[in-house]
Write a structure and sequence with these properties.
Two copies of one chain form a homodimer. By secondary structure, chain A is an all-alpha fold. The first copy, chain A, is 73% helix and 1% strand. Chains A and B meet through α3, α7, α8 and α9 of A and α3, α7, α8 and α9 of B.
């Protein structure tokens, strides 16, 4: 009786996300050798960053998109793990002294602070390699349709984290530091650096789940909208969070010559852009009906989050 | 008449290798966006290292193994390009200041000397990503058999360059610096760092070419032998090259506490090990008969090379 009373109220979306997050954690753990495997250092470094408390939003998007079109865990979990490994590798490399030179990530010392630069570079390489290796591992009984879908999803993933996606975005980000860039250049940067991988989660999940052409069209439009919304909201939170807690104004980014959606559109403009993108995401998945409810909920969470 | 006279004499093996090398160069060029693609820096950096004059021994092994069992260019070239991209990424990252800190590679400044550390790290990441992306790109008309083989070859590649292969070997190499390691540890290090990728070239080429189980058994044994032979000969050349040109003895590696096949087996012992490994490689491909002649020739070249 008391346990029933003390259980927190969870919305169906929260329950969905929490349950999927647990499956992803277990699958990630199973996809890696134990820390005792040879040579130990690299396994410890890989696990240190991969299990550092990420929200697993990308794998959950894979599962939500794939399940919306009829896919199950066996179809979807390899990509769910792969996108989280790739997201983590990109953080480990971005934090390196030669890149953004960050000492802390999610409140913990970054990989190179704990393991040294050489191992941090190799741990990132290992996560990227394992992601694609995982996509190529198939149960012996897999049929021709499953194999073809796996390869298609891998191609989507490869494009998203390559030179016109994740890596290109990071290069552009490095090169635009201290330089004023315009609205179009900013959008291109974020579509590559953040949007491409988020979009690959949704479209790749759709492909693996057996999406029809019409479904895929909906998913792609949804992915496009949330990919941008994610960054717009990040910029808004950055500006307003700083304003509230440090007494600084939203102008600090502009002063630091860092182009953001707030510096370009203003705070009100950025907020209304986020709202428009959310509306677009909801419209995009409307044709999926009830199947698209988790995707709709996640879009809402992304835009309405406060951290 | 004069042109006919002035043409150099080439053995059938040399002609085979030169012709395949040209195909690989063209395929690598076609697999990458032009330097003018956005963002330019990363494309210049990737091409700088990929076209720095490598001998393309790994892609040639893919083609030789795959052709020996009946494969053609359409089956084999994606893996041939992928292994060269992965070999190049590993060199770019190994040369970084945090790793081996090398300024020169094949007589040219290393990537980080030309483009800076951040771009060198990202160029390595980009080559690794493009390698796996390429493996996932299929012509629309590919049949179920070709698709299944492609995925199998990708899994072999992923294993070879992961934490129990290329990356594990590099970690072990970093950690064994200045430490005495024994014969077994040295062999494990080199099987991972050099042998695994060479083996993946031969076995992956075999899978893509449609090797039977019996063929694959021959190819795996061949790959095992040449993978080790490659490193043994490297160590012999290092020791004797230094002895001849610098007046130093083969003992210098031992003095630097770097374990090599020469420091462990002695020069004569290392040479006879290389000969035994060559014999094993030739025996391994003997059942392939004439189909295995190029593989046999390449093994001979690896062991009898002088640089």
């Amino acid at each position: 009786m008391t346990t029933a009373l003390s259980e927190p109220e969870r919305s169906p979306l929260e329950a969905f996300m929490e349950e999927r997050r647990r499956r992803v954690e277990a699958a990630l753990d199973a996809a890696l050798p134990p820390e005792t495997a040879w040579p130990g250092t690299i396994h410890r470094a890989v696990r240190y960053s991969l299990f550092a408390g990420g929200k697993r939003i990308r794998p959950i998007l894979v599962l939500a998109a794939g399940e919306a079109v009829g896919g199950g865990d066996a179809d979807l979990l390899p990509l769910a793990c792969a996108v989280e490994m790739i997201h983590t590798y990109s953080l480990v490399h971005d934090d390196l002294p030669a890149m953004d030179d960050d000492d802390l990530r999610r409140g913990k010392p970054t990989s190179h602070k704990v393991f040294g630069e050489a191992i941090a570079i190799l741990a990132g390489d290992a996560l990227l390699t394992r992601a694609f290796h995982l996509m190529a591992e198939l149960p012996g009984e897999a049929d021709a349709v499953a194999i073809r879908r796996r390869l298609q999803a891998t191609a989507i993933l490869g494009e998203a984290c390559g030179m016109s996606g994740l890596i290109g975005g990071q290069v552009e980000d490095l090169e635009s530091e201290g330089r004023a860039i315009g609205k179009d250049a900013l959008e291109r940067l974020h579509r590559a650096k953040t949007g491409a991988l988020l979009s690959a989660c949704v479209r790749g999940g759709g492909v693996l789940g057996g999406a029809t052409e019409a479904d895929l069209h909906c998913l792609a439009r949804y992915a496009d909208a949330i990919g941008l919304a994610f960054q717009v909201v990040d910029d808004v939170l950055d500006a307003t969070g700083a304003a509230e807690t440090l007494g600084k104004t939203a102008g600090k980014d502009a002063a630091a010559q860092k182009a953001t959606y707030v510096s370009i559109h203003g705070l009100a403009g950025a907020r209304s852009l986020a709202t428009r993108l959310l509306e677009d995401a909801l419209l995009a998945v409307a044709p999926l009906g009830d199947r698209g409810r988790h995707l709709a909920g996640i879009a809402q969470l992304i835009v309405e989050r406060e951290s």
